[in-house]
Amino acid sequence: MSEVRELRLVVTAADYDQALRFYRDTLGLPERAAYSSPDGRVTILEAGIATLEIADPGHAAYVDEVEVGHRVAGHIRVAFQVPDARAATERLANGGATVLAPPTRTPWNSLNSRLEGPAGLQLTLFTELGELSADVTDPPLA
Asked: Name one Pfam family in it (predicted).
């Protein structure tokens, strides 16, 4: 039985307000708590179920190849499961993220996009496709 009760990814953002607006307001992560200290602020955002995915360099390169076409991720990449990867990618792009790769169907049957978000985080947005459907052959977002 695991002693771990919660996974918290802590990100230091030079532009705190921009990062907070993007991840809370644009991506839609609900605010759980916010605190301030004499020297700064922190906001804790809910992100659903947390998992820690450990990949060796070969698999990380394979995922980059599938999602983007070449190696782009650094040591950490944050992945968010969303109901509609196409709509979420467009919303985040309009909210200031840079789209590195549009939503693409993966060999593991999900629709994944890759973005660069505030605070230097590389993001994967993914939608599990379940049964194959006709809409996965639609052209990717431009």
From this structure: Glyoxalase
134: which DSSP letter? G
The residues spanned by each domain of the chain are: 16-137
In this structure, which long-range contacts are made by residues 88-91, counting pairs with CB atoms below 8 Å and at least 24 apart in sequence? 88/27, 88/113, 88/125, 89/113, 89/115, 89/125, 89/141, 90/141, 91/26
Distance CA 101, CA 23 (A): 19
Cα–Cα separations (whole angstroms), residue 31 to 20, 46, 48, 60, 101:
10, 6, 12, 30, 28
**Three-state DSSP class for 4?**
coil
Centroid of chain to Cα 66: 16
The sign of the CA dihedral 96, 98, 103, 106 is negative
> What predicted TM-score, i.e. pTM, was given to this entire model?
0.84
Fold of 16-137: 2,3-Dihydroxybiphenyl 1,2-Dioxygenase; domain 1 (3.10.180)
> What are the residues whose beta carbons fall under 8 Å from the beta carbon of 43, sequence distance 6 or more?
20, 24, 31, 33, 34, 35
